[in-house]
Amino acid sequence: MPPHINRHISFFKNAHNHIISPTAATPATSNNNGESSYSPISPLSPTKRNLVRLTGRNEHTLTVLDPAIAEILRDTLPPLQREADSWQLRYSTDQHGMSLQTLFTRANESTTARGAVGFHGPVMLVIRDVYGAIFGAFLSEPPARHKGFYGNGSCFLWKQQHHPNHTDSGSKTISLYMATGNDDYFMLSESGAELAFGAGDGKFGLWIDSQINMGHSETCSTFLNAPLATTPGSFQIDALELWSFNL
């Protein structure tokens, strides 16, 4: 792992904030008391891996997700996805247009030598609002029109922390909001006109409109997350990306 990355990750579980700084780590798990744990990988481990490569961007466009944050997020993923040393861009607003239907189509297709085939693997959603805040969600399956809630407890929300007094990549940190177990309201896109993650009491952890122009984020029971955008409540989307994991 790059030594210059300050890997502080905040976990929120049952209203408790767990802050740690592992050199490298495995995903959070929950015990019978509902408490989050995060186990560091031993520095003596013989396992070595390449740093994450972000592929699929047009060379003249700017990515929302940068390699430093991707590397931090990597250690929060399920074991299989953690092994992926390259992530593939499946959708971005600047390359594919601002349309939820286009996102659904591209999220659920893979191109092979035999043509387009269905894709069903986990993906990482990344958003930048117009004030520069970067946040997103790990999704256990690609977003699509679906009856009722779907997804599973591996889904989580996250946001990059802003450090106004630090400009180097070593100061980058994220807050991570794991599923609480309070409900199973992980993903919702029943009408195809909106996309939401986390719910409860009429509030969504993250909600996106059909034109990928406006969003909304509030604390929800599914993840007990802090609002993700620059300001609580509604926000305007500057750019959105969806990444899959090359395995």
Automatic annotation (TrEMBL):
Residues 63-246 form the TLDc domain. One of its GO terms (cellular component) is nucleus. It is found in: Mitochondrion. It comes from the Eukaryota. Keywords: Mitochondrion. InterPro entries: TLDc_dom. GO terms for biological process: response to oxidative stress. Residues 23-44 are annotated as: Disordered. The keyword Membrane does not apply. Pfam families: TLD. Belongs to the OXR1 family. This is Oxidation resistance protein 1. It comes from Batrachochytrium dendrobatidis (strain JAM81 / FGSC 10211).
